[in-house]
Design goal:
Elements: E1 2-7, E2 22-37, E3 47-57, H1 61-72, E4 87-91, E5 95-96, E6 103-112
Antiparallel strand pairs: 1-2, 2-3, 3-6, 4-6, 5-6
Length: 114
């Protein structure tokens, strides 16, 4: 299990988001991952990943949803040049499998900086 944290401040760009204030609200574990590379399977093409995530938390549904989305979204890199090939990730709003479930589904889209 990994710590699930809610980002409290948004002072820094994503590359330095670890410098923002975060609050631990529970734990999560990715239990299943499905991957699709779009347009012919080229590694440089955009990719979609769907995670099934087990969450243990007493936080509200909204806080868990926001924390999962922030945890799996990562854009930008620290290279000084363009076309570095770093992958950026954008998580869509996650959904619970059912109202009383601890399992969430999260779609993450990614692309390379080329």
């Amino acid at each position: 299990m990994q710590t699930l944290e809610l980002r409290l401040t948004h002072v820094y760009a994503d590359t330095w988001r670890n410098e923002d204030e975060w609050k631990a609200i529970g734990e999560f574990e990715v239990t299943n991952t499905e991957r699709w590379v779009k347009k012919g399977g080229d590694i440089q093409e955009p990719m979609k990943v769907i995670h099934s995530i087990h969450v243990q938390s007493e936080a509200s549904v909204e806080e868990i949803s926001k924390a999962l989305q922030e945890t799996f979204t990562m854009t930008g890199c620290t290279h000084e040049y363009d076309c570095c090939g770093c992958r950026s990730y954008h998580a869509k709003k996650p959904t619970r499998v059912s109202d009383d479930s601890t399992v969430w589904t999260l779609e993450v889209n990614s692309w390379r900086n080329y």
